[in-house]
């Protein structure tokens, strides 16, 4: 993700400054080893990376609702390198957006994508566990966020999947910090990272992973600096949407 940021800064200084605030040391990412995070999906519009996502069953990828852009959508599974994509890795999808989603600032930023054919689980493609109902994330627990970096608005996407460790931020504290910018956080979110660690724009939809479980979906971050700080990044709290997710997984439809 650090690379993504460098590219952003080099090629799209103005757009990226807004999204990434402080400069090249913000997002301490490193390359994901080949055998890890095999649940990661690249959500694509017209075969270009637009968001992250993660495989939760043979039939469904989870991503953010705000990734629902116009154009033919597909997901790519089974590679960390977006330069190495073949047709067998690409799946057409049906979009199942959370019914009450309005916009990113109002919350409910979650969407399931039904794959047009079952994903073959193997040494390149695996699912990730969802939390159990009422699972509580511990404050300061070390978690990780992964992604391919800046999106097309922010500039270049990185080719190779990057991961960064991010600490969970207590919700009350997070709310307070965001409140200083006159913004009330939506319901059913989790906060992590910031001021020095976090995600880049094209990481939207990717998972927040704690102890091998997907607990959140990358939703948004502050777009302008506040007192020279980045606020904690905001994730959709998956534990609040399990009922909806399980219903769709069971029906295999929405
Ligand atoms: C999002 O939706 C809410 C509720 O409809 C509205 O008040 C708000 O202005 C919208 N925000 C944006 C950025 O469109
Ligand atoms: C989100 O939070 C609101 C307010 O706390 C709650 O009423 C609602 O049921 C939650 N949504 C989900 C899907 O859990």
Automatic annotation (TrEMBL):
Which InterPro entries did the record assign? Peptidase_S1_PA (IPR009003), Peptidase_S1_PA_chymotrypsin (IPR043504), Peptidase_S1A (IPR001314), Trypsin_dom (IPR001254), TRYPSIN_HIS (IPR018114)
Database matches in SUPFAM superfamilies? Trypsin-like serine proteases
Signal peptide region: 1-23
Q: Tell me the keywords, alphabetical order.
A: Disulfide bond, Hydrolase, Protease, Serine protease, Signal
Entry-linked Pfam families:
Trypsin
Q: Which PROSITE patterns match?
A: TRYPSIN_DOM, TRYPSIN_HIS
Q: Name one GO molecular function term.
A: serine-type endopeptidase activity
The residue ranges of the Peptidase S1 domain are 26-250
Query: Which GO BP terms, alphabetically?
Result: proteolysis
Q: Which SMART domains match?
A: Tryp_SPc (SM00020)
User: By its UniProt entry, which PANTHER family does this protein fall under?
Assistant: ARGININE ESTERASE-LIKE-RELATED, KALLIKREIN-RELATED
User: What protein does this entry describe?
Assistant: Peptidase S1 domain-containing protein
Q: What's the name of its gene?
A: LOC118318605
């Amino acid at each position: 993700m650090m690379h993504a940021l460098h590219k952003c800064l080099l090629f799209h200084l103005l757009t990226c400054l807004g999204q990434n605030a402080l400069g090249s040391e913000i997002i301490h990412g490193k390359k994901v080893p080949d055998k890890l995070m095999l649940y990661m999906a690249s959500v694509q519009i017209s075969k270009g990376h637009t968001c992250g996502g993660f495989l939760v069953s043979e039939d469904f990828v989870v991503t953010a609702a705000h990734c629902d852009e116009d154009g033919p959508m597909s997901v790519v599974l089974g590679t960390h390198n977006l330069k190495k994509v073949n047709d067998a890795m690409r799946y057409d999808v049906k979009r199942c957006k959370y019914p009450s989603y309005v916009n990113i600032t109002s919350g409910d930023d979650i969407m399931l994508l039904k794959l047009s054919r079952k994903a073959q689980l193997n040494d390149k493609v695996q699912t990730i566990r969802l939390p159990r109902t009422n699972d509580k994330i511990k404050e300061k627990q070390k978690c990780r966020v992964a992604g391919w970096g800046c999106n097309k608005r922010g500039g270049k996407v990185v080719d190779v999947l990057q991961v960064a460790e991010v600490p969970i931020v207590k919700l009350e504290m997070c709310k307070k910090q965001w409140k200083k910018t006159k913004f009330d956080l939506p319901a059913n979110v989790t906060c992590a990272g910031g001021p020095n660690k976090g995600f880049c724009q094209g990481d939207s939809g990717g998972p927040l992973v704690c102890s091998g479980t997907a607990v959140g979906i990358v939703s948004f971050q502050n777009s302008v600096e506040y007192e020279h700080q980045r606020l904690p990044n905001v994730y959709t709290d998956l534990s609040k949407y399990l009922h909806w997710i399980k219903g769709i997984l069971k029906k295999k439809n929405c």
